[in-house]
């Protein structure tokens, strides 16, 4: 099963500092654009949630098809955002998050 995940670090001014795609799937340009679209769409949700909760780890803040977005917010409001595929266990029906 070949999958990729995308990891981005974003500054408090919404400037990308670091971006990496990891995984075993072949690199395709449209897949990279899809990851960027999903992560940038989740930024609005992160902006709202970061100020309303004291939690630093925001688990599964957004979903798109089988992709899940998780975020870690540092004390300086630097965002570490990751999107990855979420699989259901066929036996139990539970998510593999």
Automatic annotation (TrEMBL):
SUPFAM superfamilies: SNARE-like. InterPro entries: Longin-like_dom_sf, Sedlin. Signal peptide: none annotated. One of its GO terms (biological process) is endoplasmic reticulum to Golgi vesicle-mediated transport. It holds the Pfam family Sedlin_N. GO terms for cellular component: cytoplasm. This is Trafficking protein particle complex subunit 2. It comes from Dovyalis caffra. The lineage of its organism: Eukaryota, Viridiplantae, Streptophyta, Embryophyta, Tracheophyta.
């Amino acid at each position: 099963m070949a999958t990729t995940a995308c990891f981005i670090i974003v500054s408090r001014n919404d400037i990308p500092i670091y971006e990496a795609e990891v995984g075993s799937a072949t690199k395709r340009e449209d897949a990279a654009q899809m990851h960027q679209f999903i992560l940038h769409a989740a930024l609005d949700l992160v902006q709202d949630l970061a100020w309303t909760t004291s939690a630093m780890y925001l688990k599964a803040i957004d979903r798109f098809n089988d992709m899940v977005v998780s975020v870690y917010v540092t004390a300086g409001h630097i965002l570490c955002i990751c999107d990855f595929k979420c699989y259901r266990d066929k036996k139990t029906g539970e998510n593999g998050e």
